[in-house]
Specification:
The chain is mainly alpha-helical. Helix content is 63%, strand content 4%. A three-stranded mixed β-sheet has the order 4-3-7, with helices on one face. The longest helix is centred in the N-terminal third of the chain and has 27 residues.
Length: 447
């Protein structure tokens, strides 16, 4: 490897490190936004406060049956250590995605060398939404880590790796069941099945994977929690497996939805979200695709002849194709395709590595803007602060008049915010609070 290549590799790795460190340092200056972050942060805070690690709960003692507990466990553990604040709530999810990126780097380095691995890492960390989601309190980062571990372990196992890779694959599937449920079997199973079928890898699969003992290990990791959760709140298993994973996929406005997440969309929306998620690379390659060099690279890529590329292509396409036909789509679903997309772009498409510095600057500028103007995100942090400024040292008496408080209000008041029914008389000495220059239906008084 010549000196120039070594210098490029070091530069790209340092770009990724600086972006991750900047995102880490930004966490205390970020806010818990509504609805997703507020909901999941409050679930983690309640779990840490109550010590109930079996059933996730929403405010008001409502069991949350929509998601398994892995991300809530991580949030609660972090809040135990760092407190119920932005850093404590967000840190585990950054670590999930950093762990997935590190796995990806080691995997690509093994099969494609240092340069391609460094380019892949730099592409991933300069995707604006990947950078943003590193500080997002969601269930998806935990799933991304489990899926990446599973896909990396499987490929290493059937290509002559240690038998431990096979066990790691089943560990990843067990953790995936705790991260998001049986969706992990679709996201990992479908690309693996296509790869094994097309590449005729059946012999390697049965020879190198500990299928029986691995399956038992996977079940030992995941099944106990599901049984304990059903015993704690009967009806969970039916709602979770039938409702969340079948009816929600097929019915955008599913009538049995307990939490009001259903939203109408259109078929294929996931592809638009994916293009937005990989920005600025989607713009960069849209411009480059008209060049002769780009077309030649795509023509000579060898997706079918190169087993590694074909495997990564199946990995990237599966979440996009699977969610194409569901009208219930949110932008964070596209995060599942970002790691294999970065690998494909780095492996196939010619890239001017000097562009990475400018894309890094773009990401850092976005972080600075987000930290300088956190009030642009939907959050009740500033309402709570206004109340505290006007009621210093008092017990909590923050009410939302005739509406349910947003989840971030529960998080920032540590569960003490309340709702005042429309029919009830207003508490005395009410405080009028303003948000973005508009009257907010919030009133305050001593409890």
């Amino acid at each position: 490897m010549d000196f120039r290549t070594q210098k490029v590799i070091k530069t790209l790795i340092w770009i990724a490190i600086v972006i991750v460190l900047a995102r880490l340092l930004s966490l205390p200056f970020d806010v818990i936004s509504d609805p997703t972050e507020g909901r999941y942060s409050e679930i983690g805070r309640i779990m840490a406060e109550t010590g109930n690690w079996i059933t996730p709960y929403l405010p008001g003692g409502i069991p949350f049956w929509a998601k398994p507990p892995l991300s809530f466990w991580a949030t609660a553990a972090s809040i135990k250590v760092f407190g119920a604040n932005e850093f404590g709530a967000k840190l585990p999810h950054l670590l999930f995605l950093v762990g997935a990126a590190a796995l990806m780097f080691a995997f690509v380095r093994k099969w494609r060398g240092d340069l391609i691995a460094s380019i892949t890492l730099a592409i991933l960390t300069t995707m604006v939404l990947f950078n943003y989601w590193m500080g997002g309190v969601m269930t998806d980062p935990a799933l991304v880590l489990c899926l990446t571990l599973g896909m990396v372990s499987f490929y290493n196992a059937i290509n002559g790796g240690s038998r431990y890779w096979g066990y790691l694959f089943f560990i990843a599937m067990g953790l995936g069941l705790l991260a998001k449920g049986p969706l992990i079997f679709v996201l990992a199973g479908l690309p693996i099945f296509i790869f094994v079928l097309i590449k005729n890898q059946w012999r390697q699969l049965f020879r190198n994977l500990p299928i029986i003992t691995g399956t038992l290990l996977m079940l030992a990791i995941a099944v106990p929690w599901y049984l304990l959760a059903e015993r704690a709140t009967p009806g969970f298993l039916e709602y979770f497996f039938i409702g969340e994973h079948w009816q929600r996929y097929l019915q955008p406005n599913w009538a049995g939805d307990l939490y009001g997440y259903g939203r109408e969309g259109f078929v294929g929306k996931i592809w638009l979200y994916w293009l937005a998620a990989i920005t600025p690379w989607s713009i960069y390659f849209a411009v480059r695709m008209f060049s002769r060099r780009f077309r030649a690279a795509m023509a000579n890529a060898g997706f079918l002849s190169d087993s590694f590329l074909f495997y990564i292509l199946c990995f990237a396409a599966t979440p996009l194709l699977f969610f194409t036909f569901s009208k219930y789509i949110i932008v964070t679903y596209s995060i599942l395709a970002l790691i294999p997309t970065a690998i494909l772009l780095a492996t196939v498409v010619p890239i001017d590595t000097r562009k990475f510095k400018w894309f890094a600057v773009l990401n850092l500028a976005a972080l600075i803007f987000m930290c300088a103007y956190p009030q642009m995100k939907p959050s009740e942090k500033f309402i709570v602060k206004q109340y505290l400024d006007q009621r210093p040292g008092e017990t909590w008496g923050l009410y939302y008049y005739d509406k349910n408080p947003p989840y971030s209000a529960y998080f920032y008041t540590k569960g003490k915010v309340k709702r005042t029914p429309k029919e009830a008389p207003l508490p005395k000495a009410s405080v009028v609070l303003m948000k973005d220059g508009k009257l907010v239906t919030v009133i305050g008084d001593k409890i």
